[in-house]
Amino acid sequence: MRHNTGVIGMYATDDDATRSLIARIDRIESHQALRDLVSDYCHGFDKRDWDRFISIWSDDCEWNIGPPFGKFHGLDGIRKAVTEVLWPVWRESHHLTTNLRITFADDNHASGMCDVDCVGALTDDSVQMVGATYYDDFERREGKWQIRRRRVTIHYFNPVPEMQLSAPQAGNDT
Questions:
Q1: pTM of the entire predicted model
Q2: Residue 28 and residue 11 in contact, taking contact as beta carbons nearer than 8 Å
Q3: What is the dihedral of CA 105, 16, 27, 11, to 10 degrees?
Q4: pLDDT tens-digit series, residues 82-136
Q5: Does 6-159 carry CATH code 3.90.930.12?
């Protein structure tokens, strides 16, 4: 009996049936991990949860937001983009990503594309609507998936005149 031993993702294998099952499980787990990265981008940015936000990026990442913001490299570039460029001008933001499509190149590399609608208020309380598409390159290193590169194509970035973002007021419970 011949044994085919190998490694798929993070798992050692002994035979073809086991290899096939492990490969399928690894692909499902990887798919979910990549969906979580896309969600953690939104939650981290919108809730100003720095640890969550920075954890999604690889050390050698690139974030190309495009005009009017620019391109940022490495974790220091991400920190600069968020803490010196974006958070100082956005009082609040609400990113909603959808239509995530993931394509695997191999066990440790994938690409993703999703659309995002973002509504936010600048520090002057003016409301902005942004529609964009995110193009991601994901890499798994030492068992952890992260974003290696994110390119943003902004379709629109427009003010919404006479609109305010405000929480609902407490009702009268009489």
A1: 0.85
A2: no
A3: -100
A4: 999 999 999 999 999 999 999 999 999 999 999 999 999 999 999 999 999 999 9
A5: no
For the sheet with 90-106, list strands across it.
Answer: 70-73, 57-66, 144-159, 127-141, 109-122, 90-106
| 33-60 pLDDT tens trace | 999 999 999 999 999 999 999 999 999 9
Whole-angstrom distance, CA of residue 145 vs CA of residue 9:
11
Query: Is 95 one of the annotated active-site residues of the chain?
Result: yes
The residue annotated as part of the active site, out of 40, 46, 107, 115, is: 46
Q: Is 155 a catalytic residue?
A: no
Burial track 88-108 (b if 16+ CB lie within 10 A, e otherwise): eebeebebebeebebeeeeee
Give the domain ranges of the chain: 6-159
